[in-house]
TrEMBL record:
It comes from Flavivirga rizhaonensis. The keyword Amino-acid biosynthesis applies. Its EC number is 4.2.1.20. This is Tryptophan synthase beta chain. It comes from the Bacteria. PROSITE patterns: TRP_SYNTHASE_BETA. Belongs to the TrpB family. It catalyses: (1S,2R)-1-C-(indol-3-yl)glycerol 3-phosphate + L-serine = D-glyceraldehyde 3-phosphate + L-tryptophan + H2O.
Length: 394
């Protein structure tokens, strides 16, 4: 049987690895040597589980969406990551990484953020643990995402604008890496998705794997079996998807569907459908599928949802795509917005626009009436209210 987990060298098939400047090697190596050991400590697991329960509010419900199921004539379950503290799955990872940082003796935390969601999740856990928090954010994004900047400040974080390049996520990441090189001893860098140099994709995946761990026993309660016929998640960098798939990767009766943002359309030049448009390349320290020009410059991605507006996918997903283990589907802005509004009307749940992409597959693909389809509802739509208002003229 094929292996879909990371190997000891940090690769998923041909993807992954640690392509980093030499100056960063000691930091990443310290983490690589320790992360599995630390995660296996009973004390670490106990503290992680306790915080997920009492602070995040886990387990998140697995909700049978009756009206949605009736409409599409199949059995649809929603994994309610939107009900977590701070409104999405991102907190699972930041809780895990802040505990890791503490075990490694780090008392200063840095992070990069695009739309600000990962910055808020990081600032939250730093406040919880009383650690210094510095968030790098592109100057343009700071202007576009004022409420999240305010949240981070209220939580005690320092937000530093990235002033170079396009002044967005890529430039914020460069600033964070520069900071880490200059502060190797006391600082931990919390990466926000299943990307980056090894061991980050694997570490983030393992922290997020609580999602599929819960789905297994919850589905058993609902349906009398642990395995659904399909498991579905949207992919930006791929952390909610990695966590949703993790315990099903080697269950061959479970079909995996990965949903990317097509933006204005795959061929429009305004898209983030990496599996179709990408080629192997290096981004943020790993080899993966990446949208790039013929001479290897990273292409600016586009999606109406900030969380999916990323030019690559994590290396695990590149491997799932290449091997055919996962079926990749691309959903446009319009399709996602329509499905987001549909969930509001049918189930009384306002989803994040990222999550609405995963819901839109039911318009594209026909499932059998007795198929069980579990969809990761990665986040709630409060943060997207302005986008909904402008799009639908509400
Ligand atoms: C950030 C975000 C995503 C995309 O990130 P992944 O790492 O791909 O999961 C998806 N949904 C929501 C609600 C988000 O906030």
């Amino acid at each position: 049987m094929k292996n879909y987990n990371v190997n000891e060298k940090g690769y998923y098939g041909e993807f992954g690895g640690a392509y980093i400047p030499e100056m960063l090697y000691p930091n990443v190596e310290e983490l690589r040597q320790n992360y599995l050991k630390v995660m296996a400590e009973p004390e670490f697991q106990k503290e992680f589980d306790q915080l997920l329960k009492d602070y995040v509010g886990r387990p998140s419900p697995l909700y049978f969406a009756k009206h949605l199921s009736e409409k599409y004539n199949t059995k649809i379950y929603l994994k309610r990551e939107d009900l977590n503290h701070t409104g999405a799955h991102k907190i699972n990872n930041t809780i895990g990484q802040i505990l890791m940082a503490k075990r490694l003796g780090k008392h200063r935390i840095i992070a990069e953020t695009g739309a600000g969601q990962h910055g808020v999740a990081t600032a939250t856990v730093c406040a919880l643990m009383g650690l210094e928090c510095i968030v790098y954010m592109g100057e343009i994004d700071i202007k576009r995402q004022a409420p999240n900047v305010a949240r981070m400040k209220m939580l005690g974080a320092t937000v530093i604008p990235a002033l170079s390049g396009s002044r967005t996520l890529k430039d914020a990441t460069n600033e964070a890496i520069r900071d880490w090189i200059n502060n190797p001893v006391n600082t931990h860098y919390i990466i926000g998705s299943a990307i980056g140099p090894h061991p980050y994709p694997d570490m983030v995946t393992k922290f997020q794997s609580v999602i599929s761990e819960e789905i297994k026993w919850q589905l058993k309660e609902h349906e009398g079996r642990e395995n659904p016929d399909y498991i579905v998640a949207c992919i930006g960098g791929g952390s909610n998807a990695a966590g949703t798939y993790y315990h099903y990767l080697h269950e061959e009766d479970v079909n995996i569907i990965a949903v990317e943002a097509a933006g204005l359309g795959i061929d429009s030049g305004e898209s983030a459908a990496t599996s179709v448009l990408g080629k192997a390349g290096i981004i943020h320290g790993c080899k993966t599928l990446l949208m790039q020009t013929n001479d290897g410059q990273i292409t600016e991605p586009y999606s109406i949802s900030a969380g999916l507006d990323y030019p690559g996918v994590g290396p695990m997903h590149a491997h799932l795509c290449k091997t055919g283990r996962a079926e990749f589907m691309a959903i446009t802005d319009d399709e996602a917005m329509k499905s987001g509004l549909e969930l509001c009307k049918l189930e009384g749940i306002i989803p994040a626009i990222e999550s609405a992409h995963a819901l839109a597959i039911f318009e594209q693909k026909i499932f059998k009436p007795d198929d069980v389809v579990v969809v990761s509802l990665s986040g709630r739509g409060d943060k997207d209210l302005n986008t909904y208002i402008n799009y639908f003229n509400l």
